[in-house]
Amino acid sequence: MEDFNNTTISKKWLTIPVIATITRLLCRELTLQNEYLRLENKILKSKIKKRIIFNDDERRSLVEAALALGRDLMEQVVSIVKPKTILAW
């Protein structure tokens, strides 16, 4: 019984580095995706000369997504309008 428990514990400890590696890879991939999308948004915004007008559904969607980020992350990520504007909506 003791050997079984030791083997089970050993196997569990072996899976932790695998999970950590997968997590790091996914995090890196998401970071690269976010960097690309930020650059893409910056370029697209530079092409639009007029003020962007949002309808109520678009505002609601942006508010929900921004609030899910939390205030600190929202300050870093939101670029289509000022974060204060989203909070005012």
Write up this protein.
The model has no long low-confidence stretch (mean pLDDT 85). The protein folds into two domains: 1-49; 50-89. It is an all-alpha fold. It has helices at 2-47, 56-69, 71-77, 83-88. The radius of gyration is 22 Å and the shape is elongated. It is built from four helices and no strands. Helix content is 82%, strand content 0%.
Characteristic key phrases:
mainly alpha; 2 domains
Topology at a glance:
Blueprint: H1 2-47, H2 56-69, H3 71-77, H4 83-88
Number of DSSP E strands:
0
Structural class by secondary-structure content: mainly alpha
The outline comes out as: elongated
Strand content: under 5%
Largest sheet: none
Provide a short characterization of the protein structure.
It contains 4 helices and no strands. The chain is elongated, with a radius of gyration of 22 Å.
